[in-house]
Amino acid sequence: MAPRIGGVRLVHEGWARYLVAEVLQEDGTRITREIEDHGRAVAVLPYDPDRRVATLVSQFRAPVLYANGPSSHLEVPAGLLDEGLPEDEARREAMEETGLRLGELEFVSSAWSMPGISTERMDLFLAAYREADRTGAGGGLASESEAVAVHEIPLPELAAMGRRGALTDMKSLVLLFALQLRRPDLFTEAG
User: Fold this and answer.
1) Rounded CA gap, 91 and 105, in Å?
2) What span, in angstroms and rounded, lies between the C-alpha atoms of 101 and 171?
3) 92 by DSSP, 3-state: which?
4) Bridge partners of residue 109, in order along the sequence
5) How far apart are CA 118 and CA 41, in angstroms?
């Protein structure tokens, strides 16, 4: 018999839900596991293939600061999957955070972010854009206390950040590496 959830107790409900699950193991023993539950999410790496730049954002992240990290964290636009399709939600997040109107998205993966603790499964996308696609201000939603700064970074510089460990957000690294594998031509110095 495979392990199964025998019961779940809610310990907190807010932006995320925190649960304690009773797990019945294969040998019949019972153990407990904590679960952070907020469901699906999306992330997208917008890049301009003509100018060889990518648009990332930085914003305050309390967990990073709590863990002795910096108060501002560089990452790709991302957010929770509300009610729409992942592609539509990725476009919405990009517009809210960066002011970019994204068209076609290239699917990379649907991956578990932190399978040891969280139910979050994140749909990851790449999206080419042009200068004319910057149609909004970006900056995030004031109603959610988002103070998002927008950064356009040359792709060779972003790749160098990834190599030296300066890009410390996992979803951003995965998307950077996916773009490097799929479009290595974008990471050479323009000449």
Assistant:
1) 9
2) 21
3) helix
4) 124
5) 12
* CA 42 and chain centroid, separation: 6
CB 129 within 8 A of CB 48: yes
Residues 6 or more apart whose Cβ sits within 8 Å of residue 74: 56, 57, 58, 151, 167, 168, 169, 172
- Could you give the 3-state DSSP secondary structure of residue 72? strand
- Is residue 176 within 8 Å of 74, Cβ to Cβ? no
Residue with tokens 């900056």: 139
pLDDT tens string 30-44: 999 999 998 899 999
pTM reported for the whole predicted model: 0.92
Q: Residue 43 is inside which H or E element, if any?
A: strand 40-48
Across the chain, which has 191 residues, the per-10-residue mean pLDDT values are 92 93 94 93 98 95 88 92 92 94 97 94 98 84 74 97 95 98 89 48
- How far apart (Å, rounded) are the C-alpha atoms in residues 130 and 138? 16
Cβ neighbours, 10 Å, residue 83: 6
